């Protein structure tokens, strides 16, 4: 186990930023902390780094088995990159990358030649060969973030912590850098925890996704598990688009307090009146993306339903706004209240079948 943080709590005055959080990260993994604003992601990251201390008496942090709870940030051997981690403006790219090494105590400081070699190696690693002499102002946003990453790696950290590393970049650069980071991680396999508020980023990048909500961890798992087997209404609503259906009368077989969800890609569009479909009207068609997205209205209860189908299917169906169709739910997720008042996931394809009958 590379990181083991147990029973961490943190209060800022009356606000609980973390409430008894336990996080385990295996060596070499790329882990995403994702959750709404204020859920405690940054606080957890800062506590791992040693920039913030947990509540007195709460919890313990171990890196590779060693208890680092009492160690200050410089002694924890973590590399950090933040959203607005300003590079030193008056230093060249090379000097920025070398910074952590040049400020080491004389006995620990590598020789000049060794620093040079290290900087070249890092420039190559982050694919900025030849740009070492430039100033940060002469680089693009994405290049600057890669310099920040190289600077974080220069000290040979045991763990890499990234707080919204692509947050300040535009969508295209962000996507490119995301892919680049995944590839980069494959090549160095350094245990990495990154904070993002972007679900898609978490699902696309991470080996393991940690979903946070209100100072606690709501669910941990590989991307697909978190997406396909959400353990709570919160997780299903937070991780990707979802339709919440009216329970009770409107959905045969469900009880009024149940919560029913259908992902847009689990909504099938069929011809109007087809057996086993629900009557609906097409309100909007969005066809400008890689998938076709539709907003529909169920005729029986005026419920709005989002559907996502392939572009090929959308083109084939030749739909237009106002048209009536039949919709079918392939898969429904139902959360039922348990006796203790918790919400429990019941996979319920029978319900989908009975609901589709109208
Ligand atoms: N230094 C601080 N002083 C007071 N309250 C704080 C401080 N830092 C964080 N908080 C509070 O702790 C809670 C968790 O904040 P945190 O920054 O960890 O959330 P987050 O999930 O990273 O949010 P965001 O996505 O908006 O960055 C919030 O309610 C926040 O207002």
Automatic annotation (TrEMBL):
InterPro entries in the record: AAA+_ATPase (IPR003593), ABC_SmlMolc_Importer (IPR050093), ABC_transporter-like_ATP-bd (IPR003439), ABC_transporter-like_CS (IPR017871), Mo/tungstate-bd_C_term_dom (IPR008995), P-loop_NTPase (IPR027417), Sulph_transpt1 (IPR005666), TOBE-like (IPR024765)
Classification via Pfam families: ABC_tran (PF00005), TOBE_3 (PF12857)
Swiss-Prot/TrEMBL keywords: ATP-binding, Cell membrane, Membrane, Nucleotide-binding, Sulfate transport, Translocase, Transport
Presence of the UniProt keyword Metal-binding in the record: no
Gene Ontology MF terms: ABC-type sulfate transporter activity; ATP binding; ATP hydrolysis activity
Any single Gene Ontology cellular-component annotation: ATP-binding cassette (ABC) transporter complex
Coiled-coil annotated residue ranges, if any: none
One of the protein's GO biological processes: quaternary ammonium group transport
Chain ranges passing through the membrane: none
Ranges where the ABC transporter domain occurs: 3-239
Keyword Transport: yes
NCBIfam families: 3a0106s01
Protein name per its UniProtKB record: TOBE-like domain-containing protein
The species this protein was found in: Ruficoccus amylovorans
